[in-house]
Amino acid sequence: MQLYIVRHGTTDWNQAHKIQGAVDIPLNAEGMQQAQNIARRLTDIPLARVFSSPLMRAYQTAQAIAAPHGLCVEKQDALSELGFGRWEGDNFRHIAQTEPDLYHTFRHHPEQMVMPGGQSLAGRLAQSVQFVQQMLWPLEHACEHVAIISHAYGIRLLMAALFEAPLTLTTRFFFPNTSLTIVKLKAHQASLWLLGDDHHNQQSNGGGHAR
């Protein structure tokens, strides 16, 4: 089974470099175009299921991907963005200056980090592990192609769950808006085929086949 993991399209808060977290921000015009771009890129992939974060920016992206396949989007709380608590609406550069100790823990010891007024990364990782074990592995032989639409930290946590990787490693990954990551699941092992590719947004024709 192949997973086509997609980060949501751009929002006004993305463009303003604001931390969104659990705040339910919709796609802006650029984000809607990006969603169409990635949808075209995946048009020829015979998707069987489309899972999405319930947050609007991810769900709108997922709807664009699901529509050409006649599929309904299946919302999964485990794919939501990390709840950043009182950091939401701020930006990381400012936080690094005003709360350097807490920011250091967040960047270098994420397994110990509880977001101020928000979620712990370890707790959210446990949700991602449960999603992989209960939703993805049972589909290994039932579905050949599955799309998953999430968020920057939602995808990092999912990657940690899929590869049993430490959080310190996955926080170094970068996922541009509507970037595509492809992971193959076989015999209860995950292999990485593509990471964070967004060339479909760089092409005037909006992309083509997944690769």
Shape: globular
Strand content: 15-25%
Distance between the termini: 15 Å
Largest sheet: 6 strands, mixed
How large, in whole angstroms, is the Cα Rg?
A: 16 Å
Report a brief summary of the structure.
The protein is 36% helix and 17% strand.
Notes on the structure:
The model is unreliable at 204-211 (pLDDT under 50). The chain has a six-stranded mixed β-sheet, sandwiched between helices. Helix content is 36%, strand content 17%. Helix 3 (56-66) links the parallel strand 2 (49-52) and strand 3. It has 211 residues and is α/β, with parallel strands linked by helices. It has eight helices and six strands.
What would the keywords be for this entry?
alpha/beta; 8 helices; disordered C terminus; 211 residues
Topology:
Layout: E1 2-7, H1 12-15, H2 29-41, E2 49-52, H3 56-66, E3 73-75, H4 92-98, H5 100-108, H6 121-136, E4 145-150, H7 152-163, H8 167-170, E5 180-186, E6 189-197
Parallel strand pairs: 1-4, 2-3, 2-4
Antiparallel strand pairs: 1-5, 5-6
Helix pairs in contact: 2-3, 4-5, 6-7
